[in-house]
Amino acid sequence: MEDWTYDSARDLDKDLMARLRGFPREPTMVVYALRSLAALMLRCWLKAVHRFRVNGLENLPVSGSYILIGNHSSHWDALCLTSMLPFGMRHRIFPAAAADYFFTSAPHTIFSSVFLNALPFHRRASPQQSLKICQELLRTPGNVLIIFPEGTRSATGELGSFKPGIGLLLAGSDVPVLPCAIRGAFESWPRGRRLPRLTRLEVSVGKPMRVAPKSAGKDAIRSATRELQQAVQALMEAHDERT
Q1: Residue 2's pLDDT is what?
Q2: Residues 118, 22, 123, CA angle at the centre, nearest 5°?
Q3: What are phi and psi of 192, to 5 degrees?
Q4: I need a labelling partner for 219 at 20 to 30 A (CA). Which of 25, 111, 166, 208 fits?
């Protein structure tokens, strides 16, 4: 029988809000339990009320870390992508969320860190440092990083231009990226609407892509970014043609 050792959390000296806003975090058992309960309730709600459906689940890697990217037009987007993954992975899924929006007030911080397990991304203050944290996260096998490369929710539902951050994140790595098309989210819960409409939600998952730029040069970064944007756009158009 192995001997047990006990080490206190490294962020134990910080107050609660500072711990929740930090990353990586060391959650308590209460946080794990609340997140599991929230994930279960969300999956039941999506399935029963929004007839949530996912196409292309067979494309998900069975091992290693990977990145999910998708179009972004609604708060549903991150919730749909996290809910389509196996329930057992719920503590290894990290949606990148804008720190200046999701980690400012106490209610937003608690929801984002406890229930969503979001990674605070400082898109204005220190984006390079946030990219390094993302790269470090992906070095641990079994982690899933969710990123919306448009950087903000679309006001029209159309796919906007991808920011170069996704290309910078991939530079020098071999992490697979899976493009996703999220449909129905804009119609249900667009920007500015307080409560969602009870419309159908659907996600299409594309095949893993390895488009890491061979250099950190601007042209290589732009090329990789453009290729990923085209993949998401193609999935969106393919979905719309089917329906």
Answers
A1: 61
A2: 65
A3: 95, -15
A4: 208
Read off the DSSP letter of residue 174. Answer: -
Rounded CA separation 170/227 (Å)? 13
By the 8 A CB rule, do 180 and 202 touch? no
The 8-class DSSP code of residue 209 comes to B
What distance lies between CA 238 and its chain's CA centroid? 22
Query: Are 82 and 39 within 8 A, CB to CB?
Result: yes
* Phi, psi angle pair for 78, to nearest 5°: -65, -35
Task: Give, as one character, the DSSP assignment of residue 97.
Answer: E
Burial of 10 (0-12, 13-18, 19+ CB in 10 A): exposed
Helix (H) / strand (E) containing 66: strand 66-70
pLDDT per residue over 115-154, tens digit each?
Answer: 999 999 998 878 899 999 999 999 999 999 999 999 999 9
Residues 57-88: tens digit of each pLDDT = 999 999 999 999 999 999 999 999 999 999 99
